[in-house]
Please model this.
Amino acid sequence: MSAEPVVHVPKHVAVVMDGNGRWAQKRFLPRVAGHRQGVDAVRRLMRVAGERGVAHLTVFAFSSENWKRPEEEVSYLMELFFKALRDEIQKLHDNGIRFRAIGDLAALSPDIQQQIRAAEQLTANNRALTFNVAVNYGGRWDMTQAVERACAAGHPTNFPQYLAFADQPDPDLFIRTGGERRISNFLLWQLAYTELYFTDTLWPDFDEAEFERSLHWFASRERRFGQTGEQARAHQALPSKAIQ
Ligand code: FPP
Model:
């Protein structure tokens, strides 16, 4: 890792937090212990991302497919999310963080839905960092619901405006921990031009140094958005020039 500071920081970082189960199993602990430790890693990333100037941070907490896990693991994950939200929302608010949940929230328990609404309302005007949590989210669900709503409004071609966070910029940097190299039905539409960073590090071990490594990698990428390198550089869309 370079000791130089990264000058070009991604505005929006989206994360698939994989490897909690393996982290726990390596320590002869139940899988849920890995999820609990994973919440600490989320807290740490939120702090360091804010400090580094990231404006939007999105984490994949529970996918549309995660319902297929053993029932006790599903209940534990829901409980963990509910408790984290209840216990930490005031601290988020005090730090100027805006909380948003994305996903098919109607399938969650009424308690969690209520907690989410309260957290979103409390933090709605904060601007230091927008923290999006994807719960019961799937990229295919997102596109389907957007098309349905756009058709119902009579403007089918406007469907991107109905996607989960159409009011926020697309992610610049996608991070997936835990060794797999796939997107797993995360933000399928929004990741079209995102730089994809994969690391073998298990999510609970993803610390400040790991995040810094991903930022350096991002800063070295040439983002062309379909243009030639020369065109992109001329339009100053080239973060690699920004690293000092
Ligand atoms: C994937 O690891 C992780 C999850 C399915 C859940 C991630 C959720 C958290 C870290 C809690 C988030 C809470 C808040 C408040 C945002 P895995 O279980 O698939 O790990 P494995 O691949 O090693 O089995």
